[in-house]
Design the sequence.
């Protein structure tokens, strides 16, 4: 009663005191409630490890609710080592007892292959079981499976039905997804007025993705008059709620001075937040800022570090920039072989600037044996994409007999910037 405020004034400390008295008598429900109090810091200092201890004691009773709670602790790694397999096992035990939240959690594990073999059909099975109990998250997730055609035949009308059922409960993610359906015209006629209504409803229910989506509409002028200031305002709200896309976009707004005053330091601040969430565009842009001393003190080593992180995602522009750092010995020891390696990775993705760099390495024999035919091949690939530098070089080489003249003129190269 003290924990819920029923019949008495809510008092978490008093609730904890009574839960502990009951837990001493091995009352599983009290043990589970103590775990919840320690997990969330209600009436006690927040202590995930202590929460796990109480959840484990309570789970000995086989309670589906407790098994689901303990599975969530293993999933997050709070108070115990992260273990997707143990989380999935506990979710399965609870799901088989008909626990709706555990069924949804298990469906998610199957959708993304966390602790179980990825299986979209199994994901749909468990989402459906949970959704039929009215679980808002499962209703939304089942809608997503129908929209994407994962584990079921793609069916936009079915997707909309499940999204609507979740939205009827005020579930923000579903409201945002309905807005996206109206924006794309999937299952419904394209209608930006409905898009905006649903995005606003989702935003009011706390969705950072909806705030970002509204910001993007204002930035691009879709369904509303283009308004960079309003876009920046919405991006800021979403970014402060942790939206990766909004953090990156807000960095871009500050970099270019769109809707806000140009401020490289602010751009760096938001790029960093997005980069810390693993966004390769932001990681690359941070490298660019450090390479050029914009918003931060110039630091080639730091630039190379961020380019490498972005390149690790297979991001072609960052691979090109990292190649340039190796070619010129900026932030890393000069190494033509490494430069060629990174240029090639980006060039093979069809990135024209890197194709011109790789061509130049072949032309001069830097990091690879000199090979004018190979150089021409890569210049032509870049030229076919409209790269003017490559077009000019090809014309120059053709005039000189495919580069066989005695005198080799400088083929200037330049690192590809971030923005």
Sequence:
């Amino acid at each position: 009663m003290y924990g819920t405020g029923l019949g008495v004034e809510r008092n978490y400390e008093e609730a904890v005191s009574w839960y502990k008295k009951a837990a001493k008598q091995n009352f599983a429900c009290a043990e589970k409630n103590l775990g919840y109090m320690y997990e969330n810091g209600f009436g006690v200092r927040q202590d995930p490890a202590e929460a796990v201890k109480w959840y484990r004691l309570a789970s000995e009773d086989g309670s589906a609710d407790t098994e689901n709670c303990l599975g969530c602790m293993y999933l997050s790694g709070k108070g115990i080592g992260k273990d997707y397999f143990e989380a999935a096992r506990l979710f399965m035990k609870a799901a088989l007892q008909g626990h709706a939240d555990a069924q949804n959690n298990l469906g998610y594990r199957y959708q993304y292959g966390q602790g179980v073999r990825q299986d979209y059909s199994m994901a749909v099975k468990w989402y459906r079981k949970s959704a039929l109990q009215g679980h808002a998250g499962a209703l939304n997730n089942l809608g997503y499976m129908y929209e994407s055609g994962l584990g079921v035949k793609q069916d936009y009308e079915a997707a909309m039905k499940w999204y609507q059922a979740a939205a009827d409960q005020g579930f923000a993610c579903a409201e945002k997804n309905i807005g996206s359906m109206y924006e794309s015209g999937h299952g419904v006629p394209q209608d930006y007025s409905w898009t905006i209504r649903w995005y606003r409803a989702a935003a009011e229910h706390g969705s950072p993705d909806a705030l970002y989506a509204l910001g993007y509409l204002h930035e691009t002028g879709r369904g509303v008059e283009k308004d960079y200031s309003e876009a920046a305002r919405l991006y800021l709200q979403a970014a402060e709620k942790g939206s990766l896309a909004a953090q990156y976009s807000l960095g871009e707004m500050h970099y270019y001075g769109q809707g806000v005053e140009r401020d490289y330091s602010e751009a760096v601040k938001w790029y960093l937040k997005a980069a810390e969430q693993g966004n390769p565009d932001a990681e690359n842009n941070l490298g660019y800022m450090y390479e050029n001393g914009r918003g931060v003190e110039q630091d080639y080593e730091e630039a190379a570090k961020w380019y490498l992180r972005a390149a690790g995602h297979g991001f072609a522009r960052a691979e090109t920039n990292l190649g340039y750092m190796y070619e010129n010995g900026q932030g890393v020891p000069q190494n033509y072989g490494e430069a060629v390696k990174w240029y090639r990775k980006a060039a093979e993705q069809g990135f024209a600037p890197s194709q011109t760099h790789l061509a130049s390495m072949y032309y001069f024999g830097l990091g690879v044996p000199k090979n004018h035919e190979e150089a021409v091949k890569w210049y032509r690939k870049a030229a076919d994409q409209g790269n003017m530098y490559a077009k000019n070089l090809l014309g120059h080489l053709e005039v000189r007999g495919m580069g066989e003249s005695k005198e080799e003129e400088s083929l200037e190269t330049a690192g590809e910037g971030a923005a």
In short: Residues 403-419 have pLDDT under 50 and may be disordered. DSSP finds 22 helices and no strands in the chain.
